[in-house]
């Protein structure tokens, strides 16, 4: 028996990523695919710039993951639970480009969906967007949702 196609969606809570989820689910319905939502928490994003003489900032990984689950993943699972599409999720730490690329490769995903922009326009401008980088690296079709 052939395994169901797998569509991975990079989610970050932005309106662009929410549209990417919608696009993936709509296609999954037509193609009997499963959808995996992946939210990548970057260490760098949540570490404030430290001033000399201040206490080092300790990242509470559990708390950060709970917040991501509550604010980003759970609302999406709720919204699409009646669609008949099998939806799973992962919360991972690291660089979104590397993490999404590794997941897509490791899980032999058929397509990768993501919003064309992320939550931070400034960071997009600074780093060149995650979407752009992953499109060059992925090795599978990447759908950049406007």
Concise overview:
InterPro entries: Rossmann-like_a/b/a_fold, Universal_stress_UspA, UspA. This protein has 146 residues and is α/β, with parallel strands linked by helices.
Task: Describe the overall structure.
It comes from Thalassotalea loyana. This is UspA domain-containing protein. Belongs to the universal stress protein A family. The chain is of the alpha/beta class and 146 residues long. 45% of the residues lie in helices and 20% in strands. It contains six helices and five strands, in the order βαβααβαβααβ. Strands 3-2-1-4-5 form a five-stranded parallel β-sheet, sandwiched between helices. The longest helix is centred in the middle third of the chain and has 19 residues. The termini are far apart.
Mean pLDDT: 83
Strand order of the largest sheet: 3-2-1-4-5
> What is the H-and-E element order?
EHEHHEHEHHE
Largest sheet composition: 5 strands, parallel
Distance between the termini: 35 Å
Report helical residue fraction.
40-55%
Number of helix segments? 6
State Rg.
16 Å
Q: In terms of structural class, how would the helical and strand content be classed?
A: alpha/beta
Pfam family, one: Usp
Domain UspA: 8-146
Family: Belongs to the universal stress protein A family.
InterPro entries: Rossmann-like_a/b/a_fold, Universal_stress_UspA, UspA
